[in-house]
């Protein structure tokens, strides 16, 4: 028979696992997250509250797998979490909380699918995520704007993946605007703003809106220099790749000094990647 103590054990395992993951030790976090899922799964079949916790743990397990560079494995637990939240939302139980959790998992699922090259599926998941975040914001004005802003930045990238560049720019502008409205008070906000601003520079450059690009790149590089350690390797690599492309773009536009700065910033990120390996 499932034991209520299993829920407490699962919570503790998940807490320790995500604590390790946040500190950069994804390898140490992975077995703890797997154990948390196994602890709670039997109870989830008979206890609705435990089923929600199972979905939370599945989502976090997927994140850890993704941070380890294993997106194909990450899809399965995140997709299961999405299925749980959809089922619970359909029952009408605690819709505000469930909708918010569903939006988060859909956003994560979209990112994993994109990493596997499934761009249309990824776009659908991310569009749905943003729609749920907007509904949550309408129902609850205290919804943290950071979550919606992060999803919008991801939506911008998903649009770019399928060559919908005007839509990508619109989503990127909205994301950066939301993030700029709120004072930067923690590393997660700083990270989101750095990534979103870099993405905005890319979107502007792709659409040849040359006048705006240099100032946005300058802002992005200042934010990137402030990024805390540790930082997910995949995100550092993506920033380095973006800055390398932007350095090329600036050089073609005759902005040699800014191009050199962007190239040096990309090189610094690659050195950091090598150091943190």
UniProtKB/TrEMBL annotation:
InterPro entries associated with the record: TPR-like_helical_dom_sf
Name the record gives this protein: Tetratricopeptide (TPR) repeat protein
């Amino acid at each position: 028979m499932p034991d209520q103590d299993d829920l407490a054990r699962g919570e503790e395992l998940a807490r320790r696992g995500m604590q390790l993951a946040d500190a950069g030790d994804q390898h140490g976090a992975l077995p703890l997250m797997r154990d948390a899922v196994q602890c709670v799964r039997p109870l989830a079949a008979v206890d609705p509250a435990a089923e929600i916790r199972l979905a939370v743990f599945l989502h976090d397990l997927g994140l850890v797998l993704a941070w380890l560079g294993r997106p194909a494995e990450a899809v399965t637990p995140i997709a299961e979490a999405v299925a749980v939240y959809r089922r619970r939302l359909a029952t009408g139980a605690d819709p505000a909380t469930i909708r918010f959790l569903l939006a988060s998992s859909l956003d994560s699922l979209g990112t994993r699918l994109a990493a596997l090259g499934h761009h249309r599926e990824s776009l659908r998941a991310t569009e749905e995520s943003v729609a749920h975040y907007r509904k949550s914001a309408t129902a609850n004005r205290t919804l943290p704007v950071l979550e919606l802003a992060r999803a919008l930045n991801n939506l911008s990238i998903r649009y770019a993946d399928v060559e919908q560049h005007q839509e990508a720019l619109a989503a990127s502008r909205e994301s950066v605007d939301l993030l700029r409205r709120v004072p930067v008070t923690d590393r997660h906000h700083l990270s989101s703003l750095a990534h979103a601003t870099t993405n905005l520079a890319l979107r502007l450059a792709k659409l040849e809106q040359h006048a705006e690009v240099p100032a946005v790149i300058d802002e992005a590089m200042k934010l990137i220099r402030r990024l805390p350690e540790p930082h997910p390797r995949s995100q550092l690599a993506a920033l380095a790749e973006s800055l390398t492309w932007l350095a090329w773009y600036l050089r073609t536009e005759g902005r040699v000094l800014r191009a050199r700065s962007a190239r040096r910033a990309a090189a610094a990120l690659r050195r950091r990647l090598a150091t943190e390996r």
